[in-house]
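Render this sequence as a predicted structure.
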Amino acid sequence: MNLDHPTTPVRLLIADDQHLFRSGLARLLGDDPRLELVGEAADGAEAIELVDRLRPDVVLMDLKMPRVDGIEATRQIAAKHPEVRVLILTTFEADNYVLRALEAGAGGYVLKDSRPEAIASSIVAVRSGERVMASAVANRVLDMLTGASTEKEFYDGLTPREIEILRMMAAGMPNKQVAYKLGISEKTVRNHVSNMYEKLQIYDRAQAVLYAVRKGLVDV
């Protein structure tokens, strides 16, 4: 199939809880002759309902939405309507979010700051059966999905305990609270943090929090 000029326009449903963003994107994508906008949803639950009724070719799905989030909506749509493709559209560039979306059945992942024409091309590509990931972490995500890399490699050598402590740090817990929560000494926590900093080549808690956000280890 020629991705630039599909034989029939892709029937598109946009799901995003931010009304201004959703309507603006709908207007921009509606100008592309490759696409036919058939509906808009304000959350995952509405997206599921509209897929049942409208049977779009592709759902452009936000991740963070009320009632039912984008990952759970993707999971339900993929199970009930495997012919409908889901393309995740989000501000999150974190490895963990990519993995969860793809494992739920999404056919791709693009960022909200992408150009409208790039998003439109991704929609067309996903409809044709391609997997689209416009992200710097794409190759590493595929390695995780195919088993080519381990979780330890995926998180730059961090152990499960270090990842657990990093999550707590990113949630704002001081070392003393982390120690109490895990039932270990504060000195042990400091040792884990020191090892973590060395592996990640970072120097303070702020950099650790940024790493945790980028990896999807903590909600933002």
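Summary. The mean pLDDT is 85. The domain at 153-214 is CATH 1.10.10.10 (Arc Repressor Mutant, subunit A).
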